[in-house]
Write a structure and sequence with these properties.
Number of strands: 16
InterPro entries: CBAH, CBAH/NAAA_C, Ntn_hydrolases_N, Peptidase_C59
Strand content: 25-35%
Distance between the termini: 39 Å
Mean pLDDT: 97
Bound molecules: taurocholic acid
Number of domains: 1
Largest sheet: 8 strands, antiparallel
Domain Choloylglycine hydrolase/NAAA C-terminal: 9-313
Keywords: Hydrolase, Lipid metabolism
GO molecular function: choloylglycine hydrolase activity
CATH class: Alpha Beta
Protein name: choloylglycine hydrolase
Shape: globular
CATH superfamily: Penicillin V Acylase, Chain A
CATH architecture: 4-Layer Sandwich
Strand order of the largest sheet: 11-10-9-6-5-4-3-16
Number of helices: 5
Structural class: alpha+beta
Length: 325
């Protein structure tokens, strides 16, 4: 399970919890403007927008999980098991593979409205990256400071939804997740009046009673409701540190602790391996890992973006504790 969210203060923030039971040795990968993207079916692209993101530890190609480009456009791929369908090559369409989708979108487009238009002509083709890394069933949230969309590959092509709640988890498909939010329309960040009955008193014995009924389990539909509520009611000042801190708290509301989600394999549990937070206006990637609660930052604009070589930074995974005495 994974969760993605955006958050807007003075800048636009976007990121995700990467929840899984195994790691692909992910690292921060920067793709400078002149790294040559070789595509399986469309023409290679020699020069494009620069990209920063978290990618699998595979040399020679940026297999991004989530990323943002120098124009402020951001995207994350989340599991969409049992629903994602990739198709055969289609004439007249821009045929890219699912693993090329993030590089293609972020390399070519600068905002969500351009992407929406381009998606009308994109076909996601079922071609594996390699035999060892077959295709994953994914859907994507794409976000910038004007809004967000969700892209789902279905059997009759790509379905694109506007995303007014600014979050995405896994199953079921996005339209069903959105509909389910109707069930929670009475929830509030304020304590409710007693509308249960006029005939007897009910005590307001605690703060936080306005959100009684908000799910707290780790299923993807429960995380959708929980994180949508948390994001919608989020309050912080608009400074960089406060915004970043608040963003980590939004995704912290649906963090998966190791041990709570058993995978059908001895000793394997799904947990939040890392949380990313992009300030997309400044192209800075902040992240935390499960074993290191300190926030680490990598700035796209500090690199030589006219180079042609990928730049990688390993994730800082050692806990960093500030001992006071
Ligand atoms: C599993 C990851 C999504 C995390 C997630 O949604 N977890 C929830 C699982 S579940 O619903 O609860 O089952 C996805 C996100 C990005 C994916 C990776 C990226 O797409 C990049 C390559 C693509 C290759 O085709 C496969 C390996 C891979 C390296 C992918 C492995 C895996 O499928 C990743 C890491």
């Amino acid at each position: 399970m994974c969760t993605a969210s955006n958050y807007i203060t003075k800048d636009h923030y976007f990121g995700r919890n990467f929840d899984y039971e195994i790691s692909y040795n992910e690292r921060v990968t920067i793709t400078p403007r002149n790294y040559k993207f070789e595509y399986r079916l469309i023409d290679d692209i020699e020069s494009h927008y620069a990209i920063i993101g978290v990618a699998a530890g595979v040399d020679g190609y940026p297999l991004y999980y989530d990323a943002c480009n120098e124009k402020g456009l951001s995207i994350a791929g989340l599991n969409f098991e049992g629903n994602a369908v990739y198709l055969e090559e289609k004439e007249g369409m821009v045929n890219v593979t699912p693993f090329e989708f993030i590089p293609y979108i972020l390399g070519t487009y600068s905002n969500v409205s351009e992407v929406k238009k381009a998606l009308e002509n994109i076909n996601l083709v079922n071609i594996n990256f390699s035999e060892e890394l077959p295709l994953s069933p994914l859907h994507w949230m794409i976000s910038d400071d004007t809004g967000a969309i969700v892209v789902e590959p279905l059997k009759d092509g790509l379905k694109v939804y506007d995303n007014p709640v600014g979050v995405l988890t896994n199953n079921p498909p996005f339209d069903k997740q959105l509909f389910t939010l109707n069930d929670y329309r009475s929830l509030s960040n304020r304590n409710p009046e007693n509308t249960f009955s006029k005939d007897f008193d009910l005590d307001e014995y605690s703060r936080g009673m306005g959100a009684i009924g908000l799910p707290g389990d780790l299923s993807s539909s429960s995380r959708f409701a929980k994180v949508a509520f948390t994001r919608a009611n989020s309050f912080s000042s608009d400074g960089e540190e406060e915004s970043v801190s608040q963003f980590f708290h939004i995704l912290g509301s649906v963090e998966q602790q190791n041990g709570c989600t058993f995978i059908n394999d001895p000793d394997l549990y799904e947990y939040t391996i890392y949380t990313s937070c992009y300030n997309t206006n400044k192209a800075v990637l902040y992240y935390r890992t499960y074993s290191n609660s300190q926030i680490t930052a990598v700035k796209l604009m500090s690199e030589d973006l006219d180079s042609a070589e990928l730049i990688n930074y390993r994730l800082e995974t050692e806990e960093q504790i500030a001992y006071i005495n």
